[in-house]
């Protein structure tokens, strides 16, 4: 009963999407039986083409008849069973093999059935789901009188222990006792090991007592299992006590496995230094550290951010002649990816391949996730192609990472199409898959598609969770529709799920966005009463609105509620209050707020200082603003580009252009890169016109007025201050392109090329985008090739805009040629790997309708019963 309940819980939620097999060819079952029975008696029958044709559509019933006819030759029966499972479309999967095994048992072919059963158990040695199916199949066969023999039980117990299925192993142990078998020492050892792997130490200790009572010796294997069990239960001190008894006088001794398990246990509870000391002791006593020992320590060091130490240990590992394994490399690749060091991660991956190791599914998933987070989705698909070529089958997590990457770059419809590919490959979406799609469509404002995904999620048997509904709440609030967001919060409550702080904070933001801050305050008070606030974020959202509206009194009320609730104001809270005072023109109070922050142990950050400097600049108190800049340096707070931009703009506004350039020089010496606001202010000063605002319309008018002489003057003065001419060129070319002055922009690009300078991809994109906006795709294509000839690099987005534009104009051949050029310039060596995925990403048609059809199909699949073959 326990096994059946466990199986139902573990397997019932995983529907199978195996296509129904084609009907067998029209030949007589009796004829096939006679022919096959005759052919398998001949030498080298496995390579007989006639036999392969006959068995390709043999049903399990027919195979059972053939094996029964050869029951006198058990080795032949087993060989034929193994062979036919590979050749017959009926017997290929595990369910059909178990069905065939059941038929053999029904025919009372006990000896053959036992041999086949051992073969099937060994075939399932890497999959918990598969070995549970076999175990359940054995239970069902018992109902027809089949009695499992001792070798079958023993092998089953061994593999259940290896797969950490301690409770199932215990159930099988009880069945062995019921069937009258006397267990040997090795069986008890495996059972103790299985229980310990699941952390059931007390139960394991009971069996150890039984072992001693039966007269078996307490050996190193049993005691090492107890060390493992205590480590799994995070009782490391208990594990150390067992270790001391083992290594003490009269103890059974320890081995390298015991040390490695204990090192791992210490690392798991954060006792890294003790683990390193134990490894050194291990070496001193002559035990050789394995790749597993090193990998455990390397992972612990990576988890604590000690990357240099981890790489040092890997060098030590190589010095001792111990080669890193797949897991060692995967740990390092994972940590490099988490730190955003994607090039180094890729280098480690390539080194792994050079060492002759085959990356596993985890390695690929880590890298694909990293590429997708960086927006390098095409590179992620290229890795998927490599993965498939190296026969590493992607799992649903692989597709989830890729779908999230597509959603993050605004291609949620492509993510739905990718989901279809995953289903075609026999995978089924989980709650993470659906939530990725819901979030992607919600962020894109396509709520109708997000609702369709939510419906498909429910109909396919995957229950929506908090995250599913919170995505809708967040999106609706950002769109200024908090009332509709409340409907989804109602659904959360109706389903008995807790409404979390994230959803309620989003609702507060929605009310504030629509000017109903009183509703937001009421909701905040309710959250305070219900004690569901853990951070000042919700308070800060309301303070932000009140500060912008210069509602200082109400802002102080909100601050009072925060303090009463026991939440300490963060630096963001103080900064928002200071901003409100600056907007009200009360600079004295704003500067006092900065002093209060220091006294409260929450010193101002760069944003706080920048807001105060902006307030002083607005009040034309430039000397006070510069004094505050000096104070920033004294407080070890480095100004950012915006801080300098505000001061430079203010000096330009009062006609002090030279002082503005002096500040620019200081800024550049500090290692800061000026932003477009800085260059816009300086260019306005050179034209001797009123400083342009930072909005697009004012900047557009500025670039409509300038002449090439003004552009060159800005370039000269910036270069004299030590600025980067490439940045100035990029600023000027971008501005001129957006103003439609492509010829002047082209002249500057040519001047850059003559000087051997490289234009940024953003500036390249501005030229291409300007032409695409005017539907001049032919000219945009010419400009892409011209920029590439100048060794400049337009982004993938520019290529995509031109490619799609050419396709819309019916110039498909030119679009395809540009794709090939893009692949070639990207340095892809094997175009066959990546072109199918670029084709997938560029696929045209009505994506919206196509996505709807796929989602409908998922819903239908979820309602179908599993086919019986």
TrEMBL record:
| InterPro entries found in the cross-reference section | Mito_RNA-Proc/Resp (IPR051240), PPR_rpt (IPR002885), TPR-like_helical_dom_sf (IPR011990)
Q: Where are the PPR repeats?
A: 219-253, 255-289, 290-324, 325-359, 360-394, 395-429, 430-464, 465-499, 500-534, 570-604, 605-639, 640-674, 725-759
Q: Which Pfam families match?
A: PPR, PPR_1, PPR_2
Q: Which GO terms describe its molecular function?
A: mRNA binding
Record keywords? Repeat
Q: What does the similarity note say?
A: Belongs to the PPR family. P subfamily.
This one is known as Leucine-rich PPR motif-containing protein, mitochondrial
Higher taxonomy: Eukaryota, Viridiplantae, Streptophyta, Embryophyta, Tracheophyta
């Amino acid at each position: 009963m326990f096994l059946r309940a466990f199986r139902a819980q573990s397997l019932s939620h995983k529907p199978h999407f195996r296509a129904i097999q084609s009907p067998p060819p029209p030949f007589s079952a009796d004829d096939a039986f006679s022919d096959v029975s005759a052919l398998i008696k001949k030498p080298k029958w496995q390579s007989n083409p006639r036999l392969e044709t006959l068995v390709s559509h043999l049903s399990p019933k027919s195979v059972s008849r053939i094996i029964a006819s050869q029951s006198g030759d058990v080795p032949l029966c087993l060989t034929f069973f193994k062979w036919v499972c590979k050749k017959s479309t009926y017997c290929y999967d595990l369910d059909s093999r178990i069905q065939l095994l059941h038929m053999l048992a029904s025919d009372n072919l006990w000896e053959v059935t036992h041999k086949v059963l051992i073969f099937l158990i060994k075939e399932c040695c890497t999959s918990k789901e598969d070995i549970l199916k076999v175990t359940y199949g054995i239970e069902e066969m018992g109902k027809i009188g089949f009695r499992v023999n001792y070798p079958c039980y023993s092998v089953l117990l061994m593999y259940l222990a290896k797969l950490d299925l301690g409770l199932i192993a215990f159930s099988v142990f009880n069945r062995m006792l019921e069937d009258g078998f006397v267990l040997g020492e090795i069986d008890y050892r495996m059972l103790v090991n299985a229980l310990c792997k699941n952390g059931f130490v007390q139960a394991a200790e009971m069996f150890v007592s039984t072992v001693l009572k039966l007269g078996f010796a307490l050996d190193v294997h049993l005691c090492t299992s107890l060390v493992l069990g205590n480590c799994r239960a995070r009782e490391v001190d208990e594990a150390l006590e067992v270790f001391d008894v083992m290594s003490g006088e009269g103890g059974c001794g320890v081995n390298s496995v015991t040390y490695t398990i204990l090192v791992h246990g210490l690392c798991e509870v954060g006792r890294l230094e003790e683990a390193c000391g134990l490894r050194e002791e291990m070496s001193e006593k002559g035990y050789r550290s394995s790749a597993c020992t090193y990998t455990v320590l390397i992972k612990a060091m990576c988890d604590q951010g000690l990357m240099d130490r981890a790489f040092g240990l890997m060098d030590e590992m190589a010095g001792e002649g111990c080669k890193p394994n797949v897991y060692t490399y995967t740990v390092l690749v994972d940590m490099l990816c988490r730190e955003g060091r994607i090039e180094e991660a890729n280098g480690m991956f390539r080194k792994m391949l050079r060492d002759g190791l085959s990356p596993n599914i985890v390695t690929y998933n880590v890298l694909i996730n990293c590429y997708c987070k960086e927006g390098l989705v095409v590179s992620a698909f290229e890795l998927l192609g490599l993965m498939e070529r190296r026969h590493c089958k992607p799992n649903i997590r692989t597709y989830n990472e890729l779908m999230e990457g597509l959603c993050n770059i605004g291609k949620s419809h492509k993510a739905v199409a990718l989901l279809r590919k995953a289903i075609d490959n026999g995978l089924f979406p989980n709650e993470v898959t659906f939530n990725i799609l819901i979030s992607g469509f919600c962020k894109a404002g396509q709520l109708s598609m997000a609702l369709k995904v939510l419906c498909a999620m429910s109909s396919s048997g995957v229950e929506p969770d908090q995250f599913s509904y919170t995505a809708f709440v967040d999106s609706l609030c950002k769109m200024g529709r908090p009332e509709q967001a409340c409907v989804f919060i109602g659904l959360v409550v109706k389903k008995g799920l807790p409404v979390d702080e994230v959803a309620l904070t989003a609702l507060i933001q929605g009310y504030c966005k629509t000017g109903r801050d009183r509703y937001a305050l009421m909701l905040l008070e309710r959250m305070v009463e219900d004690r569901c606030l853990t951070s000042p974020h919700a308070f800060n959202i309301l303070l932000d609105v009140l500060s912008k509206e210069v509602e200082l009194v109400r802002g102080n009320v909100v601050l009072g509620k925060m303090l009463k609730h026991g939440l300490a104001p963060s630096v963001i809270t103080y900064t928002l209050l200071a901003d409100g005072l600056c907007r009200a023109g009360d600079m004295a109070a704003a500067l006092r707020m900065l002093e209060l922050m220091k006294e409260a142990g929450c010193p101002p950050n760069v944003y706080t200082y920048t807001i105060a400097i902006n307030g002083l600049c607005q009040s034309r108190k430039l000397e006070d603003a510069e004094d505050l800049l000096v104070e920033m340096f004294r407080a070890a707070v480095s100004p950012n580009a915006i801080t300098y931009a505000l001061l430079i703009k203010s000096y330009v506004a009062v006609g002090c252009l030279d002082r503005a350039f002096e500040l620019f020089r200081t800024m550049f010496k500090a290692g800061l890169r000026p932003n477009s606001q800085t260059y816009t202010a300086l260019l306005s000063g050179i034209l001797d016109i009123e400083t342009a605002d930072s909005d697009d319309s004012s900047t557009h008018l500025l670039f409509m007025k300038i002449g090439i002489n003004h552009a060159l003057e800005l370039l000269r003065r910036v270069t004299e201050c030590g600025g980067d001419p490439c940045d100035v060129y990029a600023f000027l070319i971008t501005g001129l392109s957006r103003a439609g002055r492509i010829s002047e922009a082209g002249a500057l690009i040519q001047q850059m090329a003559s000087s051997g300078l490289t234009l940024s991809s953003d500036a390249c994109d501005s030229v291409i985008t300007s032409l695409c906006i005017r539907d001049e795709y032919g000219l945009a294509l010419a400009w892409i090739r011209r920029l590439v000839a100048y060794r400049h690099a337009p982004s993938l987005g520019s290529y995509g805009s031109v490619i799609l534009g050419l396709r819309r104009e019916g110039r498909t051949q030119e679009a395809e040629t540009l794709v090939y050029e893009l692949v070639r310039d990207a340095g892809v060596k094997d175009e066959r790997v990546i072109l199918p995925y670029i084709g997938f990403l560029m696929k045209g048609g009505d994506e919206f309708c196509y996505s709807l059809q796929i989602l409908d199909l998922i819903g239908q699949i979820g309602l179908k019963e599993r086919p019986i073959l």
